[in-house]
Design a protein that fits this description.
By secondary structure, the chain is mainly beta. It has one helix and nine strands; from the N terminus they run H-E-E-E-E-E-E-E-E-E. The longest helix is centred in the N-terminal third of the chain and has 18 residues.
Length: 121
């Protein structure tokens, strides 16, 4: 019985001592980069890609804004990849599909072509 009690006391003391030590936090380096935008008559599409992967680079995030008032719209879904061109710009690989809500209306668009305002990776 004494051994069990002594073991529990040692565990409690060890737990108390280790609970006050701070763990080192790892600083995450973002792998997502804003690569540019496309604009049509009503909407502005901003693209973010993971440039740490091999080309074609997956689009990991995008933002859709209404051109008239700049309001950021709620995304429903998107899929697509981009290619880095010799002209130092990105282009959508074949096509990408994005669906988003403009108010209560679900809108789906197919986007193609060059992405403006590109960055140098």
């Amino acid at each position: 019985m004494k051994k069990l009690l002594l073991s529990l006391v040692i565990i409690a003391v060890a737990y108390t001592l280790f609970s006050f030590t701070t763990l080192q936090k790892k600083v995450a380096t973002p792998t997502v980069t804003e690569i540019g935008y496309q604009k049509d008559g009503s909407y502005l599409y901003t693209f973010y890609a993971d440039l740490s992967k091999a080309s074609p680079n997956p689009i990991t995030y995008m933002q859709v804004q209404k051109v008239t008032n700049g309001k950021v719209l709620t995304l429903d879904d998107f899929s697509g990849t981009v290619l880095f061109q010799k002209s130092q710009k990105f282009t959508i690989n074949n096509k990408m599909t994005v669906s988003f809500y403009d108010g209560d209306k679900l809108i789906s668009k197919d986007l193609k072509g060059l992405i403006e305002g590109g960055i140098l990776p």
